[in-house]
Amino acid sequence: MAAKAWGGRFQQQTDARVEAFTESISFDSRLAAVDIKGSQAHAQMLAKVGLISDEECQQILEVLTQIGVEIEQGQFEFRFDLEDIHMHIESALIERVGDIGRKLHTARSRNDQVSTDLKLYTREAIHRIDSLLKDLQVAFVERFERDQDLVLPGFTHLQRAQPVKAAHYWFAYCEKFDRDRQRLQDCLKRVNVSPLGGAALAGTSLPIDRQYTAQLLEFTDVARNSLDISSDRDYLAEFCFCMALVATHLSNWAEEWIAWFSTEFGFIKLPDAFTTGSSIMPQKRNPDVLELIRGKSARPIADVQQILVLLKGLPMAYNRDMQEDKLALFDSYDTVAACLELAAAMVEGAELQQETITAKLEDGFLDATALMEYLIKKGTPMRTGHGIVGKLVALCESRQSRLVDLSLEELQQACPQIEDDIYQILGARNAMAALCSFGSGGEEPVNEQWQYWKEKLGI
């Protein structure tokens, strides 16, 4: 058994079962790069304030870099008895440089060390997720010219409601994912606050320079309360929530496209590379990737609950329970990143089925609202117009016809204000073209959205 960094007052070695129960190296080894980065900044600060010499600092920096390379190349041995990634790296450093390595932990606890690592890791995760979200937005926006002549039914309650340009759907998802990006940037404000130097819980009597390490690690601020530093995992809960909402939006999109891919809808064709077959039914093409994106959304959502339940009963400062916080962080991040990578490729490769969509476009009286709003423009009160159009729809249903099939005389019997210009409004494509309010699904408003997103995303 290796000597424990905390073992000075203990008379017995740790039980092997406890070693296995308390280790975290099996999942926190992925923090190696940020742990080394934080330790190197800490060493530079110790040299700056005179707690170690410049020569000792340089030796620590060089050996830590060497250890990092070995870990990255898979040449470093991990052992349960060394508990976590922090002790693995420190032990390797001490093995190679002796007492110089023992000086690295001066004015530092694993408590503020772990928090620093987690913040550095979460900061990198935010940047990567933001980049993947942008890739997905770009994939949606770049569909505009390909789909610009297509009109789709918009749905409420999964019932046909009003017609919109196809790109109106794509830009709707851009909005959702943009809010996700905004939330991540807001989360970053609280992540990007340096905990390094808070030590175990009370700070230190040694003359450290916390502002200097914050500067080296590119933190924008320094945490003000050492007691809070040890207990704070708000930023992880917040990041996990951001991941859960991204996953929810991905699940909404996947659910919609799963329906659109069905024979009943027939709106969209997915690339073969993103579908699978049946082991017994040779004709089947299943949207398994979309279904798994929908299914995997349960994990980030559950991770929010895991970390909140983990934290809710803890007294102030560090408690060993918090070792489990990384599981929620890693799982939510990994799951969302994997889903986003596939989502962008699917959006790019999918094709709308123009003939099927056009053949069914006039089903469901998508122009009914446009007719009602025509009556409003002619001076009819809204509720009165609603009732008139409702009766006309019922008449058409009894005849199995459409509103555009009604003669001008029949329309005028329902409302004398109707004129022959009504036929410029009736029909799904005309009804779409009539939409003119800012942000709506009509021709010009959608073109305006396209210009906005091209400029915003730098396309």
What attributes does this structure have?
Ribonucleotide Reductase Protein R1, domain 1; 3 domains; 21 helices; about 450 residues; Fumarase C, Chain B, domain 1; EC 4.3.2.1; mainly alpha; Fumarase C, Chain A, domain 2; single chain; argininosuccinate lyase activity; two-stranded antiparallel ribbon; two-stranded parallel ribbon; 6 strands
Structure notes:
This is Argininosuccinate lyase. With 459 residues, this protein is mainly alpha-helical. The protein has 3 domains: 16-106, Orthogonal Bundle (Fumarase C, Chain B, domain 1); 111-148 and 157-359, Fumarase C, Chain A, domain 2 (Up-down Bundle), CATH 1.20.200; 360-457, Ribonucleotide Reductase Protein R1, domain 1 (Orthogonal Bundle). The protein has helices at residues 16-22, 25-28, 32-48, 54-72, 85-97, 99-102, 110-141, 144-147, 166-191, 210-216, 226-231, 234-261, 288-296, 298-312, 325-349, 354-360, 368-377, 382-399, 408-414, 428-434, 443-457, and strands at residues 151-156, 159-165, 193-194, 221-222, 268-269, 351-352. The strands form 3 sheets. A two-stranded antiparallel ribbon has the order 1-2. α12 packs parallel to α15 (325-349). The longest helix is centred in the first third of the chain and has 32 residues, at 110-141. It starts with 15 loop residues before the first helix and ends with a helix. 38% of the residues are buried.
Topology diagram in text:
Layout lengths: L15 H7 L2 H4 L3 H17 L5 H19 L12 H13 L1 H4 L7 H32 L2 H4 L3 E6 L2 E7 H26 L1 E2 L15 H7 L4 E2 L3 H6 L2 H28 L6 E2 L18 H9 L1 H15 L12 H25 L1 E2 L1 H7 L7 H10 L4 H18 L8 H7 L13 H7 L8 H15 L2
Parallel strand pairs: 3-4
Antiparallel strand pairs: 1-2, 5-6
Helix pairs in contact: 3-4, 3-7, 3-10, 4-5, 7-9, 7-15, 7-21, 9-12, 9-21, 12-13, 12-14, 12-15, 13-15, 14-15, 17-18
Organism: Gimesia aquarii
Main location: cytoplasm
GO molecular function, one term: argininosuccinate lyase activity
